[in-house]
């Protein structure tokens, strides 16, 4: 390709190095500048990528007319200001998850991107893995039947974050996966949790999502578990999925199991439940690194003016649920309804 | 022992055969009579144990002066009437879990047993396993430090019960274990769930228990899961336990892992969280069958007038939580407080 | 069926009780007599099965004209004499594995059964499991392609036998499975092993079997392993199987993996090896207890004069390999050829 | 440290990039030059490490007086010539495993290094992992008791090598671990194997090692397995180890299991075997990358004139066993004795 998309990356802490490495390996993209407050981190950039410019002032990125797109990998509380500035400077934006601290901020960014006709992609990385794309395919094709539940356990001895609770840190992954896979949206949530650090944020949380149809979802997150678990069950009326992200190769298993329900002619009060058990099947998955798939998708959206599959609307939906869940958690499980007014596509 | 304890077993469906077999193998106990409505089931008793009397009328058991104790393994809705009749007939009672349908019924049975000075044991079988007794020992000895959470996942493609929801069927196990292991009692619950059978009882449920101290518990049950999971995490401030009941031998693993929290002198707003990781240790467990240990305990309580470790008070606590959880589930997670007035010991 | 097959069981030690229980549950069979040297074991039979006759003298079984078939579950060294006496008394015979101590003995039994037109079934129990039958089906159908290797690890902290080494105790299972599944027979073996008990029999052994075509087999057995492993790999040119007998449900996994080999036109010295990786599939298995399937097969052979699928010839093949392997093991791996003269079918 | 050790790396194919990266991250070491025949691979070096010199002629490395040490990561057949040239040029040498193609070559390199007083380290990387160092500690301390067996399974769908068979590719890891952990040396081997590629090298092999004392070892390697297994059992008279290198954290498990053997006073022919089962314990392991530990060790040996723990003698022992095993494999398991004359330390 003749013309590269020039990218500025803001933030070189935990995730930024992955973005820089990944974009560096994609032909058609070129990381032009990296900014971070911390000069030590910038020294690492220079040692490893001598051709990349570094700066402690992200304004340099916004003001550089050669930069087409900005990737933002900073703490959540800064996402809104940085993304808005980038959009106002006419840049396409890829922003880490969670998209923003509030849904108002998310709506404002969506609006700004729309008005300026810029791509706004939220980095819901999991959506670009082979495993999640395979689950999307299985659900969309109808092979699972009606989806009855989504149930995820995501626990480990994890870094205690100081600015966000465990829902915003870990449940965000499941919410982004659900937003991609499930064809309906939750209408209310109930959440419970606890903080074991005096004055700290919740480090264990349990989130139930209610949907209008016969579907329920639950997410179970914990920073204080002795073992790492990453297991999601998706129950369908025809088949069921177990997604174990710690399995090195067989991450997705599809079980031909379930129940069949028949009305009982003799009694309106009794349902007959029958059980089906059959084969299990583990489809081979595309092992391309998710960040590569996502980076290529970002470039394609920029070049062809397409909407990203994890655009501002997906980011907004996740933030709305996290807001509602945090509110419910403060009230020890009290139901919090989600307005289901959609952003016009 | 010269004299046997003569036992009558009511109900020979799913669990009754285990009780009959187990008591038959204990010297000092003798199963004298088995009753069941279903003559076909009684024919099985006769084929296998020609020396045991059978009857379709459980009154025969209550009226037999040679019977010292009655074991009740019938549907939950019948527990109260049968146990009350047995106590009134002067028999010691072992009753399946959940003890009763309501906490009022449970209180009534406790009262009756106390007044008549009879043993009332609730068959919280798990409490008598080597694994749960080892966890009790680890918690009681203080080796885990302060208990921070109890978290259990108990799911499989299970029999859909027609008379009780999945909490009463599966969560009852965790509640009985908690009642034995944890030194404090929950003060409130929040539960959510769903029924996938039209007009049926909930087949998936999520239950959070709040305690007065820095402790939270969560129980996760599902009759419609493609795989069987039986995993409990107990987090302590010093060590943590993973209890996987499906492991053939290493059911209990103790992890020397956790966090250390230090106040930060420079800022009251920041806590310093440090991480500890160390060895893991899987203690050897007593592999005696739980029903045997429990049967021997029942006999000893009868002979020496001791209070069972799973007596009426434990049964009552479990029923109270199940009542409250079912109420919360109907209200989609709304908090339901548990009165903490204790039964006088 | 009007008329039962009356069975005499000789030996009520480790395996005999399973045979008695299993035949008792099969309609069409009736255990008439059990013999054992040990009166205590016979007392157990009487307590559990009052209708079964017991005797310390197995002659009573041979001389009872009402007994049609004899099942022999005694130490290996006694198999030959007992089976021969039973055949001479006109009984059909089911004998534990290994069939005999020597291949001469096995041939003699085959001959006796043939001349008297009696059924002689060797209790290669694994052959009657759903897992092994499924593997047989997959191999026979050609779905795996050409079979390239059979590789089994069968280790645990097991009972040290005093009369047979670990090959005769554990490898016998794999040899019986191979004899059923593989369409060719080994032509030579090399075995190594060690005894850790002074003057004792080998408690660890490694056995390689060579075949005429492009196939190799290896069996790895150990009575002194800290963990139990039961894993067999079967490599085919098209697909491969992993059989893990400790998995509760997914015992058989079929992998669409392998290599493709192409001649390289430019060089006779180079082969091009390509790799294929694809889906994995775990077929549902028939969970009928193997002993039940085997018992029904034994009855059918008796009634219809059919040859059992684990007849004397299969038993003989296994004994011949065990003899050769033991000889090779004494010579620290030296090749021992197997004559491939077949028993006339 | 004032003065860096300047390193030349020969070969930038599979392993060379790891050496370059690892030495680049060690203070006290400096990669000065990388050589490879392939200019494309050198371009990668330049892109990533602009300060490193590159050359297609390894003579440039030997002739550079500023280079102190040479790391050789080329095909096995070239190890001898390159290592000899490096030693003759006065360089310290770190050479990939297997050290050489023949034991004569290995002896010649040991001799050259000794005469010139240069460090000769063989890159037995596993020896520098936390897991293997822990096993060494457990064996050396006597905690396991007498070592009874070493048993390793190392199989996967692996790259078919064109210049070395599967023993030289995979068993080399186990032989290097054994050479470090076990206090005695094997005196003879028996090996079997097969090639599934016409005219190719063996892709499945089974190797038994005999020792003079009551110890046996077995290594089981396969390039054509559908699943990856990396499991080693080490049996001691007191305790036993399971080393599973695919476990993310609990790689080493120590089992308090075994047998106790007592002479039987009444019979010289009978030994009494008792079984012990006890706790399992998974010690925390040092997670430092092995190459870093090894690189630091190499520097220390250079600076202080110490002998490396994986020096030429360890490399020689491994090559001798591989030679003998390959010979035995050609003869279908025939015993090949190893001379046990030691290299003078």
From TrEMBL, chains A, B, C, D:
Q: Which domain of life is it from?
A: Bacteria
- Pfam families in the record: GFO_IDH_MocA, GFO_IDH_MocA_C3
Q: Name one GO molecular function term.
A: nucleotide binding
Q: Which InterPro entries match?
A: Gfo/Idh/MocA-like_OxRdtase_N, Gfo/Idh/MocA_Oxidoreductases, GFO_IDH_MocA-like_dom, NAD(P)-bd_dom_sf
The chain positions of domain Gfo/Idh/MocA-like oxidoreductase N-terminal read 5-124
User: What are the residue boundaries of the GFO/IDH/MocA-like oxidoreductase domain, all occurrences included?
Assistant: 132-241
* The protein's name: Gfo/Idh/MocA family oxidoreductase
What's the source species for this entry?
Phormidesmis priestleyi ULC007
């Amino acid at each position: 390709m003749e013309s590269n998309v020039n990218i500025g990356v803001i933030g070189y802490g935990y995730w930024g190095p992955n973005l820089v490495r990944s974009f560096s390996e994609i032909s058609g993209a070129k990381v032009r500048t990296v900014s971070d407050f911390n000069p030590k981190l910038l020294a690492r950039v220079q040692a490893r990528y001598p051709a990349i410019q570094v700066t402690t002032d992200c304004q340099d990125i916004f003001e550089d007319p050669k930069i087409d797109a900005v990737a933002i990998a900073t703490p959540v509380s800064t996402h809104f200001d940085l993304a808005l500035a980038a959009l106002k400077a006419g840049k396409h934006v890829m922003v880490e998850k969670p998209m923003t601290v509030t849904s108002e901020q998310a709506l404002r960014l969506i609006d700004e991107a729309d008005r300026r006709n810029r791509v706004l992609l939220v980095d819901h990385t999991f959506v670009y893995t082979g495993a999640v794309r395979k689950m999307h395919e299985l659900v969309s094709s109808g092979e699972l039947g009606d989806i009855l539940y989504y149930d995820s356990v995501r626990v480990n001895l994890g870094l205690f974050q100081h600015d966000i609770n465990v829902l915003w840190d870990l449940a965000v992954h499941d919410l982004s996966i659900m937003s991609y896979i499930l064809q309906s949206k939750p209408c209310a949530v109930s959440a419970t949790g606890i903080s074991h650090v005096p004055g700290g944020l919740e480090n264990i949380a349990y989130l139930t999502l209610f949907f209008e149809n016969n579907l329920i979802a639950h997410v179970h997150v914990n920073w204080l578990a002795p073992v790492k678990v990453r297991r999601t069950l998706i129950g369908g009326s025809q088949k069921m999925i177990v997604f174990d992200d710690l399995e090195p190769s067989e991450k997705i298993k599809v079980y031909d199991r379930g129940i069949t329900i028949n009305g009982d002619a003799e009694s309106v009060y009794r349902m007959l439940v029958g059980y089906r058990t059959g084969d299990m099947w583990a489809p081979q998955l595309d092992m391309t690194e998710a960040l590569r798939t996502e980076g290529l998708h970002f470039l394609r959206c920029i070049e062809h003016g397409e909407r990203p599959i994890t655009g501002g609307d997906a980011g907004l939906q996740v933030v709305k649920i996290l807001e509602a869940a945090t509110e419910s958690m403060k009230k020890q499980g009290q139901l919090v309804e989600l307005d289901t007014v959609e952003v016009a596509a």
